[in-house]
Amino acid sequence: MTSLPVPPEPSAPPTPAVPTATYRLQLQPEFPFAAAERAVPHLAGLGVSHLHLSPVLEAVPGSTHGYDVTDHRSVRAELGGEEGLRALAATARAHGLGLVVDLVPNHMAASPRHNHALRAVLRDGPDSPYARWFDIDWRAGDGRLLLPVLPARLPEVRDRLRVSGGSLHLDGQEFPLRPGTEGLPLDELLDAQWYRLGWWRLARTELDYRRFFTVSELIGVRVEDPGVFAATHAKIVELVADGVVEGLRIDHPDGLADPQGYLEDLAAATGGRCWTVVEKILTGPETLPSAWPVAGTTGYDALRQLDGVFTDPDGADELADLYREFVGKAADRGGRWEATARRAAYEVVTHDLASETAALTRIASRICAADPALRDHAPWALATAVRELLVRVPVYRPYRTGGEEVLTPEAARGAKAAFAVPEEAAAVDVVRDLALGARGDGPEHRAFRARFAQTSSALRAKSVEDTAFYRYTPLLSANEVGGDAGRPAVPPAEFHAYCGRIARDWPAAGTVLSTHDTKRSADVRAAIAVLAQCPRVWAGLLAEVAEVPAPDPHVAWTAWQTAFGFGIPDPDRLVPAVLKSVREAGLRTSWTEPDAGYERAVADFAAAGPGRIPLRAASEAAFALEPHIRAHALGAALAQLTMPGVPELYQNTEREYRALVDPDNRAPFAIGPDDDRTALVRAALRLRRDRPEVFGPGGTYTPLAAEGPAAAHCLAFARSGAVVTAVTRLSLRLAEAGGWQDTELVLPEGRWADLLDGVREFTGGPATELKLAELFADRPVALLVRTG
User: N or C: which end of the chain has fewer CB within 10 A?
Assistant: First the structure.
């Protein structure tokens, strides 16, 4: 095991440098450290302070994302190795930039050929020093680790197995042999291993290790173990200590046994030198636990606010009605969001996560068997209680504190209603107490509490993000990580309140509009969101393309709306996105139970219709929406770049960027031509860089209210009394209502210059009112800076 270097004792706790803005680059073999190094001058010229790199540690060869880590001891050779990373850091530093790195503590690739720790466990079993690295239940099944890696049942592939060089080989896969078993006959050899090779379909019900969501190729890591933490973080801590890395993005903290404990260990190991943000998805009014030693989230909560404040609430409701009318019987659960989300949760917890709920039931059964006060609770009753409580967790997971606010007595009463025999419903109280840590603190009790929370986060992600968001599609722009498909719009007052809280509580948190995980880039979502301002135009567009036959109306609605947002007739990019949507929805086909005929029909339809017809230019009404799409996109961009928090630009989004769900949005970075977005981005980022006291921690946020008939269409705020952002919202509705007319905005006292044109100046103060028709005469946004 590797020991962590001990950081020197500082005279005072260090204060990590807070970025003024970050720029996310997706590293991959086609875009390694050297390519990123060549992009540094361009990115520095934009005005960002840090480059945010996707995972840099060793990963499965050829991986285009890097989240399938194989070795924490080294920087990925395919990207240029540690030498390449240090060279990139030096070049970045010479241009005034630092590096932020994406860190993956929750899981590794379950690849014995490439994962040295897992390989050792497969070879030596539970006595291996690496066995503590992974959540493996050696008491499940026959006491061996199930590896669901076979393309078919074992008898069907047995003749393709080969023994060579102390390993078992099958179709490019390699598995180490238990010492002393190399010479056994094949059947005896297979039975003698610490693992059992199984058909990949067994993972759903028989898996005996913790994985990432439902991805059996990613095995969970026990970073709560001090030795495991030390071994898996030594290289990152070294890079931090050497000044190569100045910030960390923590991937999927909800997968960890104890997120707060992990973050405390990380802060201690890095000596407080890192700006650290967590990929935490907040639901509704949920807030980040205040005890976490981080700067805040990566910004999906900000994305929800930004998308929502530019969405028309009345039009979104009308679109939902049109959707139910158009889709008809094909609408899941009648086209109602809450019912769709609940059905998806039940399906995922009973089907996709069957192995996870079985693991929880095994632990609970062992606890009950060992406790005289809990004996005779039937495993089926415990399993039912686990399932019914999990589907009633309203957020991603409970934490060390505040669990009672998540697993409420009301949730318990609802769970008990699922039992036909009231006496059996007492299992709900047992499971709830175990999940809250109220039934003891032994190893099994701690394991249950952690696994319940981990499974809860997987359930929420899979049922909402990866299932319900593809089944309920009235307005696709709302179906984004952290979003609320049932409530797409956010009132301006709610947006301002959110910004005020961030400025006060988490001023160095991240904000985003597009990421490597967004299902649609911000520009695609902006176009779709404009449809909420003109539902009848959308209905007319669908009628115009009705001659293109679709397999079902749900696919037609979803594919055409995706195509409208994308705006480019490109079947090579659109067809894969539409196919992914129907597989994720799981209504007529899925990843694991595909319907080949249905998928062919979907692909043919998407290629012939949405992939071929340029819908946004198909009619005069659609083409007339382009200025309003631009107004939304520019308004959201400027608001994100100047609101409280640290804005992140995803690669290529300094200009118009149209991308669909991964892998479409993970194409290698390339410098492109400037457009009006680039000028706005450069002006805002350079202002943030030059005036950190205005935007950073300590800076203030003040909403500014317009007055007049179109006041609701202006979103404006001041930062530290020195900068004013004013943008147009719902510009199509504004135009239909007669424009700005006499609507005015009172600026704070002083003289103000518009940074976006460098010419216009305005006077502020209560006696001076600025006509918004004048302010927005040339563009739908304004960035004003106090002069003098």
Answer: C
* Residue range 84-94, pLDDT digits in tens: 999 999 999 99
pLDDT given at position 344: 97
What is the DSSP code string of 571-617?
A: HHHHHHHHHHHHHHHTSS--SSS--HHHHHHHHHHHHHTTTTS-GGG
CA distance 723 to 743: 21
pLDDT of residue 128: 97
Report helix, strand or coil for 94.
Answer: helix
Q: Consecutive sets of 10 residues in the chain, 788 residues long: mean pLDDT of each?
A: 48 74 98 98 97 98 97 98 98 98 98 97 97 96 95 96 94 95 96 97 96 97 98 98 97 97 97 95 94 97 98 98 95 94 97 97 96 93 98 95 92 95 94 94 96 98 97 98 96 98 98 98 98 97 95 97 96 98 97 96 98 91 95 98 98 97 95 93 97 95 97 98 98 98 95 92 88 96 93
The Cα–Cα gap between 346 and 388 comes to: 8
In tens, the pLDDT along 742-779 reads 999 999 999 999 999 988 899 998 878 899 999 999 99
Q: How far is CA 372 from CA 367, 369, 376, 440, 446, in A?
A: 10, 7, 9, 13, 19
Across the beta sheet with 215-220, the strand order is: 107-109, 215-220, 211-212
pTM listed for this prediction: 0.95
Instruction: Output the pLDDT for position 11.
Output: 46
Residue 98 DSSP SS3: strand
Helix (H) or strand (E) holding 145: strand 145-150
Distance between CA atoms of residues 220 and 211, nearest Å: 5
Q: What residue type is 504 in one-letter code?
A: R
| Long-range interactions of 748-751: CB distance < 8 A, separation 24+ | 748/702, 748/718, 748/721, 748/724, 748/786, 750/786, 750/787, 750/788, 751/786, 751/787, 751/788
Q: What is the C-alpha to C-alpha distance for residues 141 and 144, in angstroms, rounded to an integer?
A: 7
Helix (H) or strand (E) holding 682: helix 676-690
Cα separation, 28 vs 290, whole angstroms: 35
User: What is the per-residue pLDDT for 116?
Assistant: 97
Give DSSP secondary structure letters for 197-233: EEEGGGHHHH--B-EETTEEEEEEB-TTSHHHHHHHH
Determine contact, residues 757/708, Cβ cutoff 8 Å.
no
Using an 8 Å Cβ cutoff, are 464 and 383 in contact?
Answer: no
**CA dihedral for 683, 688, 689, 690, sign (positive or negative):** positive
Name the CA dihedral angle for 509, 213, 410, 427, rounded to a multiple of 10 degrees.
-140
pLDDT at 1: 44
Distance between CA atoms of 363 and 440, rounded to whole angstroms? Answer: 13
pLDDT tens-place string over residues 567-577:
999 999 999 99
| Separation between Cα atoms, residue 444 and residue 439, nearest integer Å | 11
d(C-alpha 496, C-alpha 305), whole Å: 9
CB atoms within 10 A of CB 700: 16
- Measuring CA to CA, which residue among 558, 521, 526, 560 is closest to residue 659? 521
User: How many angstroms from the chain centroid is the CA of residue 551?
Assistant: 30
Beta strands in 435-538 (DSSP E): 510-511
Rg (CA), the chain: 27
DSSP character for 403? G
135: nearest Cα among 224, 209, 225, 230: 209
Token pair belonging to 59: 């990963």
> In terms of Cα–Cα distance, which of 553, 479, 198, 486 is closest to 336?
486
**Measured distance CA(651)–CA(647) in Å, rounded:** 13
Three-state SS sequence of 361-388: HHHHHHHHHHCCCCCCCCHHHHHHHHHH
